[in-house]
Amino acid sequence: MHETFDIAVIGSGAAGIAAAVCAARAGGKVLLLDKNSGVGGTGGLSGLTTLCGLYNDTGNFLNDGFTREFAEALVENGAPRTGLAHFQKKGELAEPVRGAPIKTGRLWVLPYRPEKFCAVAENFLARQPNLKTVWNAPLKNVVVENARIISLNGFSVGAVIDGSGTAAVAHAAGAECLATDATTQASAVVFALRGVAREIRTAADAAQVSLPVIRAGFPSLHFHPDLEPGGLTVKFSGTPEQVPTLIAFLQAHVRGFENCSSPQKKICASHRAGRMIVGEYVLSGADVLAAKKFPDAAARGAWPVEQWGADGKTKVRFLPPNEFYEIPARSLRAATIKNLFMAGKSISADADAIASARVMGCCFATGEAAAKLATT
Q: Which among 233, 227, 229, 263 is positioned nearest to 77, based on CA atoms?
C-alpha cells in the first residue's frame, strides 16, 4: 500500500523549505521530495552569498512570518567586519557586516554563508516530526484523475506544492505553463574566490578587474559581497568549464588575484528562472512596476524587474520609490489542477514579473503562503 501524505512539496530551495515547514506546522503530514542529495536549492548550493528580495528600497522588511524567521536565523550577529566593501553606483562605500543587510546601489541585500543556509534549513526541517524528506528523488509517475493529482513517485497525496523552480509538477501533469528564455533570464555561473588581496570598493575598481578579463575574450563577470576575509563572489555569464581558465587568467594578469582560488568542489550553472505554472491569475510585469495591490494578497515584493541576457548584460526596471507590489493568492493556485499550488519561481507570472519575483525573499514568502492555501 502506498504511503499517504496530506501535502507533497517538490523542491527544497527557499520556496520548498518554507512550504514544507509551514505545512507541517499547520498539522499536515508532509512529504518533501528533491532531486538533489540534500536541502538548499539555489540559496545553499549554487554559490550565491546574498539573499535578495527581503527589503524595499528604504531597507524595510517586506514579509514577516517564516521569511523573517529564516533570515534572522541566517545572520551572524556580532561578528566582525570583513574589510571587503561592495561597490555602489556612484562609488559610495558600503561594507558588508555579518548580521546586517547592506545597500548596493538602490537595493538592500543580506550577505550570508551558503553552508549556514543549508544548516539552518536542515534544522527547520528536522524540528517537524510530521515531515518526511526524500532526497535523490527526481519527480516521476505523476498521476492525475478528475483534475486532481492523486499520487507522485509512488506516494498518495492530498495536495501538491510545486517549489521546483521549473514547474516540474505541472509539466509532468500536462498543465499549461509559461516560460522564460536566455534573452531575459539566462543562466549564470556563481562561484566563490578566496585569497583575493585586492578590494573592490567602487564601480571603477570592479571595471579595472573586469575589463582585462573581457578584453581577453572571456564573457562578462560581476562581483558580489562575501563574508569571508579575502573573499569575493563572482557571477559569471560564461560556462562552468571556463571557470578554471578564468581563474588562471586572474592569477596571471590581474594584480591582487595572484593567489586566488575557488573553494568549491563543483561549479555549475544556476538557473535564474525557467517555467511558470499558469494559475488563476497571471502576475504581469505591469503589475510589478505599478506596485499593484490585490484584495487576496499573499506576499509582497519590491525587487526590480531584472533581466539578464546570455551576453551578461542586464536590463533593470525599478518600482516607484518606497513602494512594493503584492502577489495574489490566485497566482499560487493552478488554473486547471484543483489541488496544485505553486511557490517561488514556479508561481503564475509572466517573463517580466518573474524577473522580480524569482528572488529568495519572494520565494520564502510565497512558500509560506502556498502552505496556508494548501492546508485550508
A: 227
